[in-house]
Write a structure and sequence with these properties.
It is built from 16 helices and twelve strands. It is α/β, with parallel strands linked by helices. The chain folds into two domains: 239 residues, Rossmann fold (3-Layer(aba) Sandwich); 176 residues, 3-Layer(aba) Sandwich (Rossmann fold). The protein is globular.
Length: 432
């Protein structure tokens, strides 16, 4: 029987939203009937449908209710949660109702057998998914593009163990003491909704797999599978590696180091440690070795502190074209990821798929996609000294050893992070 599947995400492009777009594409390639339901549609694919809320009938009672709401519940009267930005406390009220289930199913066009949920902040919460479950009896799978499915509202924990023990009234993310209870309320709501609806999780990285297994909400799940970034190797590959440098006008005898993020000033991305590591590296290399190294930064915004390093630096605007991005990975010799609080990023697996070794901190996707002395190096969080040593090791590999690292990078993706790998994971889930 061909299953009917709904994939739910706030958007369809970039980061966590792109991951759910990939889930939809993979399931479609597996010949399932799939609708990706989003709040904000930007891609043109027909399988993506925006959820359009029904406009209330403009009758007398509605007008009275709206007037009352405007007086007592106006935007100015509802106090926004004061939270530390690094925690990304985006899920403010898990008990609120945001959808009309009948309207949603009418938009989808069928009753789903399975529902896959990604990042749905400012769109749909666990209580909405519970209502969907009651109406459809579908099996719910939450895909952990970050930690939000098992916290009281945070997408990143920064060491907080609330997701393990249950959030309480001492939430470190919420600044205002009078609002700290919200984390506990949200967590308890998520916990109860998961229990009533038999929510399950699928990990999207090695780190979120470990976190899911520790989490109070999902620790009793029999088996938690991991889809590991889901890389389309038809796009991200080594097919043009021999000519990629020429495409960008790069010199053949130079060693190009690639790093990037949408915002290099985001403390989660840890770029201050990259700067420290490169400053250490500069002292360890001879002058002729330093002259061969060029740092390429892909971002919309670049930290001014990069001006303090000795290596030549090129800034490239954030690339949306995946074919061009694939060429950039192929044209570079090393990708560095210095995230210190991260569930991904996808760029790590994309670089590996293009035969580019990776160095970075032991978190996110590096946890299980990087093996030391095989396809790169992972070092303890915030250790700029060891990061510098790891970068130097890659730079000083002889040609044969470097080529082995490159081949091993591709192999790691093919076996653990490709669309083909993800299809096997979904087969196991959908045919069980």
């Amino acid at each position: 029987m061909k299953h009917k599947i709904v994939v739910i995400s706030t958007g369809d492009i970039n980061g966590a939203y792109e991951a759910m777009y990939k889930v939809s594409k993979i399931l479609l390639e597996m010949d399932y009937e799939v609708v990706m339901l989003v709040k904000d549609k930007t891609k043109s694919d027909n399988f993506i449908k925006p959820y359009l809320r029904k406009k209330p009938k403009n009758n007398f009672i509605t007008k009275v209710v709206n007037k009352i709401n405007n007086v007592f519940f106006s935007e100015s009267s509802v106090k926004k949660i004061e939270a530390k930005s690094e925690y990304s406390f985006l899920d403010e009220d898990e008990s609120s109702s945001n959808i009309d289930v009948n309207n949603l199913l009418k938009i989808v066009g069928f009753i789903p057998d399975f529902i896959f949920v990604g990042m749905t902040s400012n769109f749909i919460n666990s209580s909405d998914i519970y209502k969907l479950y009651k109406k459809t009896n579908a099996q719910i799978y939450n895909i952990t593009v970050d930690m939000s499915f098992f916290t009281g509202g945070c997408h990143y924990s920064w060491g907080c163990q609330g997701y393990v023990n249950g959030c309480d009234d001492n939430c470190p993310a919420i600044i205002n003491q009078s609002q700290k209870y919200i984390a506990k309320k949200n967590f308890d709501t998520k916990y109860n909704n998961a229990l009533k609806s038999n929510f399950k999780v699928i990990a999207a990285s090695g780190l979120t797999l470990e976190q899911s297994k520790e989490s109070k909400i999902y620790k009793n799940q029999n088996e938690i599978l991991n889809v590991n970034s889901m890389i389309d190797t038809r796009v991200m590959n080594t097919f043009n590696k021999a000519t990629a440098k020429e495409y960008f006008g790069f010199e053949e005898d130079k060693f190009y180091i690639l790093s990037g993020a949408q915002n290099l000033n985001d403390p989660r991305k840890g770029f201050k440690y990259l700067i420290e590591a490169l400053q250490i590296l500069s002292k360890n290399l001879r002058e002729y070795e330093k002259e061969k190294i060029i740092l390429i930064l892909v971002s919309r915004e670049v930290n001014d502190n990069f001006n303090s390093i000795d290596f030549k630096t090129l800034k490239i605007d954030y690339i949306k074209d995946y074919n061009k991005l694939s060429l950039l990975y192929q044209a570079t010799n090393l990708f560095i990821n210095t995230s210190i609080e991260e569930s991904g990023p996808m760029m790590v697996s994309e670089a590996l798929a293009c035969g580019t070794p990776v160095v970075g901190f032991d978190t996110g996707i590096l946890v299980n996609m990087i093996r030391n002395d095989f396809n790169g190096y992972k070092v303890p969080l915030k250790d700029s000294v060891l990061l510098a040593k790891a970068i130097e090791k890659i730079i000083k590999l002889n040609k044969e050893d470097y080529n082995n690292f490159s081949k091993n990078s591709v192999l790691m993706v093919e076996e653990n992070s490709s669309f083909e790998y993800a299809k096997e994971v979904f087969k196991k889930i959908l045919n069980s």
